[in-house]
Amino acid sequence: MAFNSFAEFLNMGGHGLYVWLSYGLGLITIALCIYVPIVQGREVRKSLRRRILREEGKA
Fold first, then answer.
1. Which end of the chain is more exposed for a tag (fewer CB within 10 A), N or C?
2. What is the tens place of the pLDDT at every residue in 9-24?
3. pLDDT, tens digit, for every residue of 17-56?
4. Neighbours of 9 (CB within 10 A)
């Protein structure tokens, strides 16, 4: 499908809102699928580090 202008491309024949919204939500979902495990991994490592230090202090 060819578009005569950038505005036509963004409008997508009247369906632009739905098209770009779905792309945006898809990108947000992918970003969260990458970001959340990274943050959770950092928290787990911090927790384990504190636990190891606490247990070494008791031993």
1. C
2. 999 999 999 999 999 9
3. 999 999 999 999 999 999 999 999 999 999 999 999 999 9
4. 13
**Amino acid found at 5:** S
Q: What angle do CA 29, 42, 33 make, to 5 degrees?
A: 10
- DSSP assignment string, the chain: ---SSHHHHHHGGGTHHHHHHHHHHHHHHHHHHHHHHHHHHHHHHHHHHHHHHHHHHH-
Instruction: Return all residues near 10 (Cβ < 8 A) that are at least 6 apart.
Output: 16, 20
Say if residues 10 and 20 touch (Cβ distance below 8 Å): yes
